[in-house]
Design brief:
single chain; mainly alpha; 13 helices; about 0% strand; globular
């Protein structure tokens, strides 16, 4: 007993000293943590890429080459190899098509929009002056009109400059991360090729160091997380792709300018739950409004109808009940996730909250059942 007390006291003292030193030199600690994070970042990319690519890998493995696996023997190894090869060939073909076809058209649309910005500002100024002249606001506002418009123009120019600088900085950041992403792709290949053995080794390690009850809880949480995230990512990507294609077809038929650019914006923002479609619609409407105000109104009506179709018919059939999260918690997850982890938090916040919500729901139901059973026995 005395040895246990001494050991506990020594652990508390050691923890206190380490915590004091860490708080006293927090900048050095943060620098060291940042350095370590930079080292393991390619492996984090690899885990994320492997998790996403596991969806097409499982499709090829079970649906396409499943007949080879049923025959057993060496054909089983060929199944895994062919599934892995097909997965990465499909990914690289998709990247090639995007780079070859979509990026030049997107660049052309963005270039046209940027070149027309001065003309757009002049048009807005003419509309502003016409309203002042039509309703005789010049005599009421006096000299404040010119200064107000000058401030508006300066603010617009500053905002556009900041946006361009932000986009440039983002592009530079992505470019500097290409090496880590390439390493991540290599890591993902090894992880997918040895997925079964890695899972088996992880289970054995957990079984060796964790109690049976803790092991069961850990496996339950891991299984629930894998299922929820897998269904969410798969459904969201398919739904966003379908929305982008339908948006492009509709905008092309309606003759809306910047159809491809707007469709990419809508499809990309549709990945973000709750707020994404609204933000994408506002940004796209502004871009279209700068070119043709009437077409912006047509676009808003079209996107409203398309979102209703997606919410009531497309999304329930693709995503299904994979989330099972009430609307208020979806908004909460998006807000908190974006505040803590930025863009990544916008995407993973909802499935993370869904896992926590389902686990808490199971815990509450179990506690209620135990309470009811105990009250029944006392009676």
């Amino acid at each position: 007993m005395e040895k246990f007390k001494i050991k506990t006291i020594l652990l508390v003292i050691t923890y206190t000293v380490v915590l004091f030193m860490a708080l006293n030199h927090y900048s050095a600690v943060l620098g060291a943590l940042g350095y370590l994070f930079g080292i393991i970042l390619p492996f984090i990319y690899g885990i994320a890429i492997a998790f996403v690519l596991n969806i097409p890998y499982q499709f090829y493995r079970e649906k396409v080459f499943g007949r080879l696996a049923k025959k057993g023997g060496k054909l089983r190894r060929w199944t895994d190899a062919l599934a892995l090869l097909s997965t990465y060939v499909s990914v690289f073909i998709g990247i090639f098509l995007i780079v070859w076809f979509m990026i030049p058209q997107l660049g052309s649309s963005v270039n046209q929009f940027v070149q027309k910005i001065p003309a757009y500002l002049v048009s807005v100024q003419n509309i502003f002056n016409d309203i002042i002249a039509r309703y005789n606001l010049g005599s009421l506002l006096g000299t404040q009109v010119g200064s107000t418009w000058t401030n508006i123009m300066q603010q617009a120019a500053t905002t556009l400059s900041n946006m361009l600088q932000g986009v440039l900085g983002y592009i530079i950041g992505v470019t500097s991360s290409i090496f880590s992403i390439l390493i991540g792709f290599i890591v993902s290949i090894y992880m997918l090729s040895s997925k079964d053995s890695l899972i088996s080794q992880t289970k054995e390690a957990l079984r060796a160091f964790l109690p049976d009850r803790c092991m069961a809880v850990t496996m339950k949480v891991a299984s629930r997380t894998n299922h929820t995230f897998g269904r969410f990512i798969k459904g969201t990507l398919i739904d966003s792709t379908v929305m982008g294609v339908l948006c492009f077809i509709g905008l092309t038929v309606l003759g809306i300018p910047y159809a491809l650019l707007v469709s990419v914006i809508q499809g990309t923002m549709n990945i973000i739950p709750a707020f994404g479609p609204v933000i994408g619609a506002c940004l796209s409407a502004f871009i279209i409004f700068m070119d043709t105000p009437v077409k912006a109104l047509v676009f808003l009506v079209f996107i409203l109808v398309l979102q209703q179709i997606d919410g009531n018919f497309i999304q329930p059939r693709i995503v299904g009940s994979a989330i099972g999260l009430p609307g208020i918690w979806v908004i909460f997850a998006v807000v908190v996730g974006s505040a803590l982890f930025g863009v990544v938090g916008l995407v993973i916040g909802v499935p993370t909250a869904a896992v926590c919500y389902s686990l808490m729901k199971d815990l509450i139901n179990r506690r209620l059942e135990e309470k009811e059973s105990s009250s029944g026995e006392s009676e």
